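Predict structure. Chain length: 189.
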Amino acid sequence: MFAVVLAAGGSQRFGRSKLLEPVQGEPLVRRAAKLAREVCGDCSLLVAGHERAAVTAAAGDAARFIIVNERYEEGIGGSIALAARAVSHAADALLLLFADQPLVTAQHLRALLAAWGGADHDIVATAFSGIVGPPVLFPRSAFAALGELSGDTGAKSILHDPRFDVRTVPFEDAAIDIDTPADLEKLPD
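Prediction complete.
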């Protein structure tokens, strides 16, 4: 199992790199990288791109492995594909996290892992606000499809692929993501 933190985006709606913004005294990217490492130990990977030097510096030693999506401007699909290809030789599953979901907890990630059970046709996603989305656990059998993603299309198509059974674990706080400075200001202290 590898935990993959997506932290390559350009933060266009935010106006500056949102991943460097502090939440409870820590940059968003460091919080996510620490969470990944807490749950998956050394099997954690950070995908950087926009402002990669500043983002990787902010993640610090919390990120065990770092890869850079040189084509991050093309969208999230390329970052997911790059990560899937990077861990395909070493992982039976990939736990995909977004660095801009600051209220995701280790307890929720462990609940996703517990709900999986190891079957290669099972995907375990988070359910919130009528949505099925990230964080998401993908089994090895989904790596090829993940590795072909491109552009601004995330992995939603794989969640609807009939080859997979999708289980969900409810977690309403996953609905909170940071897209604008106003979103950051709404976070609880």
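Summary: The chain has a mean pLDDT of 93.
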